[in-house]
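Input set for joint prediction.
Command: fold jointly, output tokens.
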Amino acid sequence: MQSKYLSAEERRQRTVEAVVALAGTQNPSEITTAAIASEMSVTQGALFRHFPSKEAIWQAVMEWVADRLLDRIDRAAEQSGSPLAALHAIFMSHIDFVIEHPGVPRMMFGELQRAETTPAKKVAHTLMKRYAERLAQKLEEAKAGGEIRDDTDTQAAAILFIGMIQGLVMQSMLAGNIRAARASARGVIGIYFRGLGAGDGRRDMQARKETKQSKKKVE
Amino acid sequence: MQSKYLSAEERRQRTVEAVVALAGTQNPSEITTAAIASEMSVTQGALFRHFPSKEAIWQAVMEWVADRLLDRIDRAAEQSGSPLAALHAIFMSHIDFVIEHPGVPRMMFGELQRAETTPAKKVAHTLMKRYAERLAQKLEEAKAGGEIRDDTDTQAAAILFIGMIQGLVMQSMLAGNIRAARASARGVIGIYFRGLGAGDGRRDMQARKETKQSKKKVE
DNA sequence: CCAAAAGTAGTAATTACTAGCTATCTTTTA
DNA sequence: TAAAAGATAGCTAGTAATTACTACTTTTGG
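tokens >
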């Protein structure tokens, strides 16, 4: 049993977690400071001892999301044996991430569609850019390694990759079962990889890779 | 110069248009009845002579979106010479639709991510289902006609199609220029069609189609 | 014992919505 | 055909509820 008096840093951490949890069950834009306080068993006023405004809370939340998601996909990519395998691993770890935190896509959609440029939106935007950069890099590596067609439109492939996840998540959120995203993932990424010219969409692109393997450039 | 006293029906129509216009420049969940009234040069109270609640306004708006979008894609599909061409036409007319009405994707995202089941969300959900049905039908026809691989996962292909549009729209909204979606469309759909096994992703799938043309089944 | 965390009890602003009156259009009647 | 009557659209001026945020006091742990 722990004290109800926490350090400022820990309280901020708990606040972020409370928001992420709440976003899993309700529309982020309807999350009030009262609801956040209630979720973490604290009075409303206490929140403002640790954040100057609600906007600052959202910024912290989006930074949490950005850090965790990028860390996840970076680790997934590192553990992969080839650029194409890395793309596959990024995709699956992203799906796992939103299954663990169903509030995340809701928050991302909510922030990104905002018209004004809030700090939280800026963080979300930066996250998207970093994400797209990583995809572009892997796509280029895959081209160089002969894993995908080298006339692939990198920009378009990155957009489609992100859209693929969005579509999958939204579809399964609508079905009321985020976990369903995992089951549908295989079919979707199969079409995607075939679209890139990666064999029949699975990782048996090896043959094609071998023929070009001398070109081990990675950039 | 027209009167400021309109028939109830026309006033409702104007209300819907005002909301659609506002959603083009701001977060839909932040659109207040005061803002709607102001947009259509009417006092706030006047709105409630025509709608029993704000929720009813949103329902009317989503019905407007559903009717217009489905009508658009149906007409686009009808004018196409083959199922694959129809899919292409649906895609482009959808992109054109959101360029004309930039508020639409914002409203769709906003409604669909809502946790409670509001009437407006139900309408949006139904729209998605109808849309997916039409895609599935065209995909099956394309399989039967030999335009795409007949081992294509229809469900996955439909999800990816919708995600493709979502990704394109979100990306160009972030870039602050919805019209950019049109320019990026070609590359994205190219990868998609290749993923379905449709030649190199353009409409030069004709050759393959001809070889199977005896099988004119359309179901 | 004291610095920092949490509680108490407010605030002004904004929200969707309403009651009662006025302006305008439409239909009926002399 | 013109004016009165009836119907309907819009305005004015509110309401209670909810919102993010604050000043001040109390509690806690090192």
